[in-house]
Design a protein that fits this description.
Elements: H1 19-25, E1 35-42, E2 48-49, E3 57-59, H2 61-73, E4 78-84, H3 103-114, E5 119-124, E6 138-139, E7 142-143, H4 145-162, E8 166-169, H5 176-186, E9 193-200, H6 207-213, H7 215-221, H8 239-251, E10 255-259, H9 265-274, E11 279-282, H10 285-296, H11 302-316, E12 320-322, H12 326-337
Parallel strand pairs: 1-3, 1-4, 1-12, 4-5, 5-8, 8-9, 9-10, 10-11, 11-12
Antiparallel strand pairs: 2-3, 6-7
Helix pairs in contact: 2-3, 3-4, 4-5, 5-8, 8-9
Bound molecules: ligand PBG.
Ligand PBG binds near residues 135, 209, 210 and 285.
Length: about 350
């Protein structure tokens, strides 16, 4: 950088003096092309609000289809779909997770059929289906890695069969990407991509999500010594995230994800700089709830704060961002431009 002719010849405020100029010098811009909308679906006729997540619903399949159509009209490129499984369908071994007649698979098919141009990203992890709420099978008080990844592979194939475009393993087991890639290819789904939650931290910010899918009670009722910390990344580590991402790409991941997003922007930056694969980031339930609740308490306005949070994540290097605010934001942008 050339420091010659510092103040008063150089005045950085000159490029801030009018909106048209600020627009031209903006380094990153947020648009609907950046957004993925995470949505919950349950096996009930009637949709219901998620108390822990203001503005978020558990949709019936019919309502989900309608929501997908609307989101598509607002320009949203893809949905990330999460199942809310009734206690009667949860079990020790998560057997419901790979059954073709599972309502989650019906929901995937229904959306794909109604809105074929929209991307569908599905969640590969056992936790919605396990009675203990862990992401894998538990043996002798430990979440077993190798037994779990075999099940995840079956789960991913069932989701691909139902119409998933990208499967997203969020379980943090070792070797799961390679096993899933091989299983998808073997079953004839070589075009289905893998969005790997490569750097998923053992975060406190998943609280509202766990309440939404009912794994909070499951986890509480069956406490484990190490629990999620035994497989999700510890929050002190950034270098390890790069290692996770490189391994996932080596095993066949098309995209890597950092989660949560806002508190881990250094990790997003590090992964994006490595150019291993495009980096997506997940603004998780707790991050979103924090903004919503602070806004309703009058601390600030919701949408400018949401946009600022997302812009920071994008500036750090995220190519796309999952946010519970995606649809509302996209609708707002549509109305502003018309
Ligand atoms: C579990 C999963 C979690 C989230 C997405 N998938 C929570 C967990 O690990 O317990 C959290 C997402 C959010 O908080 O919005 N496979």
């Amino acid at each position: 950088m050339n420091n010659e002719g510092a103040f008063p010849a150089v005045r950085l405020r000159r490029l801030r003096r009018a909106a048209w100029l600020r627009r031209l010098v903006a380094e990153v811009k947020l648009s609907v092309d950046d957004l993925i909308w995470p949505v919950f679906v349950h096996d009930k006729e009637v949709s219901e609000p998620v108390a822990a997540l203001p503005g978020v619903m558990r949709w019936s399949i019919a309502d989900l289809v309608q929501q997908a159509k609307e989101a598509c009209e607002f320009g949203i490129a893809a949905l990330a779909l999460f199942p809310v499984v009734g206690v009667e369908d949860k079990s020790e071994d998560a057997a419901m997770a790979w059954r073709d007649d599972n309502f989650y698979h019906r929901a995937i098919s229904a959306v794909k059929q109604a809105v074929p141009e929209m991307g569908i990203i599905t969640d590969v992890a056992l936790d919605p289906y396990t009675s203990h709420g862990q992401d894998g099978v538990v043996r002798d008080g430990v979440v077993e890695n190798d037994a779990t990844i075999a099940l995840l592979a079956k789960m991913a194939v069932a989701q691909a069969k139902a119409g998933a475009d990208l499967v997203a393993p969020s379980d943090m087991m070792d070797g799961r990407v390679g096993v899933i890639r091989a299983a998808l290819d073997h079953a004839g789904y070589s075009q289905v991509g893998i969005l790997a939650y490569s750097a998923k931290y053992a975060s406190a910010f998943y609280g509202p999500f766990r309440a939404a899918v009912g794994s909070d009670n499951a986890l509480k009722n069956t406490p484990m010594k190490d629990g999620k910390q035994g497989y999700q990344m510890q929050m002190a580590n950034g270098e390890e995230a790069l290692r996770e991402a490189l391994l996932d790409v080596q095993e066949g991941a098309d995209l890597v994800m950092v989660k949560p997003a806002g508190m881990y922007q250094d990790v997003i930056y590090r992964l994006a700089s490595s150019q291993a694969a495009p980096v997506f980031a997940y603004q998780v339930s707790g991050e979103y709830a924090m903004l919503r609740q602070a806004a309703s308490a009058g601390a600030f306005e919701f949408f400018p704060a949401l946009e600022e949070a997302l812009l920071g994540i994008k500036r750090a290097g995220a190519r796309a961002i999952l946010t519970y605010g995606a649809k509302e934001l996209a609708e707002r942008w549509c109305n502003q431009s018309s």
